[in-house]
Structure formats: structure tokens, C-alpha cells
């Protein structure tokens, strides 16, 4: 009965939300002001604040139930920590009727249908600056928190671990900093995590890939170190790790991922050969390993990727032949191989590239093709074949060290997007991802909750801001 009640609760929440997640970037840029934000960096001492609503709320106010009183306390304390609200999205956050606040959605409580409680908060595209407060941990019935495209800074409070019903957390396109927000690892209901375009740094915790999360989107931060070896434990359908500073190899455990459909490792510092396990996930339809330091040939296992639609291996140092068995994959319609050292291509690849396969092959070592590398440039790599059994994952090999020197430093700001807007969805629908721009997740549209200002209710995703 409890399980059934939970799904009924989720269904009520989705009355106020759109059930699809889209990934998109546009050319528009929002101005960003950092003035006054650094002073708001939180410390662990913030977690020791008194969160008792009876001590913080005016006793003359009347509330329909104790949960609404707690929500009032949480939202009012949060509003005090907002130093700028240019669209006045919290302008009507006044009085005890929190269910009428803009961006706040209420539904019957999961454990008591006779009372209302706050189940969703959506301040997407608000450009609000400030910080999160520990009092948000009082929103124990919260299922959705969307804060995409604001200027919140600091860290995620430890009290977020109290949000046991939270299943969608979107903190993307803000100024959050510090290590990976570990409070989210304790959230038992979390299914969608989007923290892209922030300033998080350090390693990803292995525990992230042991959680039952469907979408893990952490691109465009400053994460570093190796990708955890237990990545293959994740049941996620979408994982976006692009535009960070990850090093080492792609974990071989990726081969046992049961649900993975779309994954991007683009624009990191990954090394070694592409593992054979890369072609094992049966549902993979988008794979992007571009802009890294990968060496050696394409794995033979790629020929088994029957559902692959978009495959991008560009801007690496891959060598050898582009085989017909890959080009001939029936679902493949975009195969990007430019800026490598491939020196042979199959006849089927040539035929399909003239017919129905988009294949960008410039800046390789193909004889007789236009826009290829110089003979001297090709010889410097092709005369030093790579043994994938011994190459390893660290840049110890002289060739990799030399390539590291040549590669320009990682730029945290995103490049102007390709005119073809990339789209990826963490669902089981057929999707497309434009090359060479890596996928970037956008949240649900801003009409996810009923009390949202009409002028903010755009159906279009907000663009990422540069750092």
C-alpha cells in the first residue's frame, strides 16, 4: 500500500509538471554579476542554526496545518538570503498561504490525504542571486526542486538529506561551488540530478553510481580525478560528464550498464585506448568521446551497437581503419571522426557518406581526400603504433605527454553552440545529438508548478551562461 501511495503522490506532482526532459543549448547569453556573491559562501556552521518554526515564525499567524507552517518558515528564511530577485518572482511570498506563492506547488500529503503540503518549488530562469539555507530541510514532502538559470552560490546544505521524497533536483546554471554536494547521495527517492554549469570541483563520489538515478548530468563544472570504476553499477539511461577535467580511462564497467542510452565524455583529459566494453550496452544510441586524448584504433565492439544513432570520436589521436562494420550500422546517421589520424576507410563508409550518413572526416590521414593532415604530421603518429594492452590510463607514454603539451588548456566557458541544436532525452524515445557540441541538459520548462508568473512560463530552455 505504501508503494502504491507513493506512485499516486508522484502522479499528483506531475499534474503540475511536464514529463519529458530535454537537452538543448542556444546562442543567447545571460549577463552574470558576481558582485556580493562571494561573501555568501556557506560554511558548515550554517548547519547548526535553530530550525524550530515555533521560534522563527510570528505566533499571531495562522496556518492550515503544521507542514504548511514549516514550509512558511523555510521559504521566508530562504527569501531573506536572496540578495537580488530582478523578475520579482518571490514578490508575493507574503503571508501564511504558501500554496499561493509563485513557483510553489501543493498537493495532498503522501501519508495523509486530508492535509496539503508543499511538493514542488520551481524558480527556473529567475536570475535570483543568494544562497540556499538549511531551513529548506523543513520541506520534508518536497518532490521537485528546480532552480535552473539563477545565480545561487555557496554549497548545498547538509539538511537536504531530510528531503526523502525529492526525486527531481535541478541546480543547473548557477554558482554553486565546493566538492560534489554529498547530501544528495542520501536522498532515497532521487531519480533526476542536474548540477551542470556550476563550479563544483574534485572527484565524483563512487556512491553516485550506486544510486537508482535515471539521469546524472554534471557537465561544465571543474570535476577532476578518474571517473569511478563502478560507473557500470548505475541504472541511469543518461550520463553527461563533458566539459570537466576527468583523467584516466573510461571505466570498463560501462559494458554492463543495463539501461544506458546516451553518454558523453566529451572535452575532458581522458587517455588510453577506447575500451572494447564501450560497444556492449545494447540500448546506447548517443555516444560522444570527442576532445580527449584517446589513442589506438576504434574498438571492434562498436560494430555491435545496433541502436547507435550519433557517434562522435572527433578530436582525439585515434589511428587505423574506419571499418565498414561501423559505418554500416543501420541506425547510425551521424558519424563524426574529424581531427584524428585515421588512414584507411572502408568502401561502405564512402558509399554511405555519399548517401545517407553524415560523416565529417577532415583532418585525418586519408590518402586522396581533401582537407587532410600533412604527411609529416601523419608520420609522426602513424610510425609509432599503440599497443592497447600496455598503454594504460595515465599520460606516462612519451607520445601522450607530447600530445598533452600540444593541446590547448581546458576553457571552462562553453564555445558558441553548433547551429544544429543538440537534443538528448533521458527517456526511451529516439533522440538526436548534434556534433560537435556535447549534450547539455535543460530542466523541465518553467510551468512545472501552477503558481508561476505567466511571463516566465516559457517553453524554451534557458541557455547556459559562460564562466
Describe this structure in words.
The protein has 467 residues and is an alpha/beta fold. Helix content is 13%, strand content 18%. The chain is built from 7 helices and 23 strands. The strands form 3 sheets. Strands 2-3-5-7-9-11-13-15-17-19-21-23 form a 12-stranded mixed sheet, with helices on both faces. The protein has an 8-stranded mixed sheet with strand order 1-4-6-8-10-12-14-16. The chain has a 3-stranded parallel sheet with strand order 18-20-22. It is elongated. The model is unreliable at 14-47 and 409-467 (pLDDT under 50).
Name its key features.
signal; twelve-stranded mixed beta sheet; 467 residues; alpha/beta; LRR_dom_sf; elongated; Cell wall hydroxyproline-rich glycoprotein; eight-stranded mixed beta sheet; 23 strands
What helical percentage do the residues reach? 10-25%
Tally the helices. Answer: 7
What is the total tally of β strands? 23
Q: What is the overall shape?
A: elongated
Element order, helices and strands? Answer: HHHEEEEEEEEEEEEEEEEEEEEHEEHEHH
What fraction strand? 15-25%
- What's the story with the biggest beta sheet? 12 strands, mixed
The parts where pLDDT drops under 50 for at least 5 residues are 14-47, 409-467
Strand order of the largest sheet: 2-3-5-7-9-11-13-15-17-19-21-23
The pLDDT mean sits at 81
Global Rg: 24 Å
Helix and strand content put the structural class at alpha/beta
Distance between the termini: 48 Å
Amino acid at each position: 500500500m505504501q508503494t502504491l501511495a507513493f506512485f499516486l503522490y508522484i502522479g499528483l506532482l506531475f499534474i503540475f509538471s511536464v514529463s519529458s526532459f530535454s537537452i538543448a543549448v542556444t546562442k543567447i547569453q545571460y549577463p552574470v554579476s558576481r558582485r556580493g556573491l562571494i561573501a555568501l559562501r556557506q560554511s558548515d556552521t550554517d548547519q547548526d542554526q535553530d530550525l524550530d518554526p515555533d521560534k522563527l515564525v510570528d505566533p499571531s499567524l495562522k496556518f492550515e496545518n503544521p507542514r504548511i507552517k514549516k514550509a512558511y518558515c523555510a521559504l521566508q528564511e530562504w527569501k531573506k538570503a536572496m540578495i537580488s530577485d530582478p523578475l520579482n518572482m518571490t514578490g508575493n511570498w507574503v503571508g501564511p498561504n504558501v500554496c499561493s506563492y509563485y513557483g510553489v506547488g501543493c498537493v495532498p500529503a503522501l501519508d495523509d490525504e486530508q492535509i496539503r503540503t508543499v511538493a514542488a518549488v520551481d524558480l527556473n530562469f529567475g536570475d535570483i542571486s543568494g544562497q540556499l539555507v538549511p531551513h529548506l530541510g523543513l520541506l520534508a514532502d518536497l518532490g521537485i526542486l528546480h532552480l535552473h538559470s539563477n545565480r545561487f552560490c555557496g554549497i548545498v546544505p547538509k539538511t537536504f538529506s531530510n528531503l526523502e521524497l525529492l526525486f527531481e533536483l535541478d541546480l543547473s546554471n548557477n554558482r554553486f561551488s565546493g566538492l560534489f554536494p554529498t547530501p544528495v547521495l542520501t536522498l532515497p527517492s532521487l531519480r533526476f540530478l542536474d548540477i551542470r554549469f556550476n563550479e563544483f570541483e574534485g572527484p565524483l563520489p563512487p556512491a553516485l553510481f550506486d544510486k537508482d538515478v535515471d539521469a546524472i548530468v554534471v557537465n561544465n563544472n571543474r570535476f577532476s580525478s578518474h571517473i569511478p570504476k563502478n560507473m557500470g553499477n548505475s541504472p541511469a539511461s543518461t550520463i553527461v560528464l563533458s566539459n570537466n577535467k576527468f583523467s584516466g580511462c573510461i571505466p570498463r564497467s560501462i559494458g554492463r550498464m543495463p539501461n544506458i542510452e546516451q553518454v558523453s565524455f566529451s572535452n575532458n583529459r581522458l587517455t588510453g585506448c577506447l575500451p572494447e566494453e564501450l560497444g556492449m550496452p545494447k540500448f546506447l544510441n548517443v555516444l560522444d568521446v570527442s576532445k580527449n586524448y584517446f589513442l589506438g584504433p576504434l574498438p571492434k565492439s562498436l560494430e555491435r551497437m545496433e541502436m547507435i544513432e550519433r557517434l562522435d570520436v572527433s578530436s582525439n589521436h585515434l589511428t587505423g581503419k574506419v571499418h565498414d562494420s561501423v559505418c554500416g550500422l543501420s541506425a547510425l546517421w551521424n558519424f563524426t571522426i574529424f581531427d584524428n589520424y585515421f588512414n584507411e576507410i572502408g568502401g561502405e563508409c564512402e558509399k554511405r557518406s555519399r548517401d545517407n550518413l553524415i560523416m565529417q572526416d577532415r583532418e585525418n590521414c586519408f590518402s586522396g581526400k581533401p582537407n587532410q593532415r600533412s604527411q609529416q604530421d601523419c608520420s609522426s603518429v602513424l610510425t609509432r603504433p599503440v599497443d592497447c594492452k600496455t598503454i594504460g590510463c595515465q599520460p606516462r607514454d612519451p607520445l601522450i605527454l607530447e600530445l598533452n603539451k600540444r593541446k590547448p588548456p581546458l576553457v571552462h566557458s562553453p564555445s558558441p553552440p553548433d547551429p544544429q541544436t543538440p537534443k538528448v532525452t533521458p527517456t526511451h524515445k529516439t533522440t538526436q545529438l548534434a556534433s560537435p557540441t556535447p549534450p547539455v541538459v535543460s530542466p523541465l520548462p518553467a510551468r512545472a508548478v501552477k503558481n508561476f508568473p505567466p511571463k516566465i512560463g516559457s517553453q524554451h530552455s534557458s541557455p547556459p551562461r559562460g564562466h
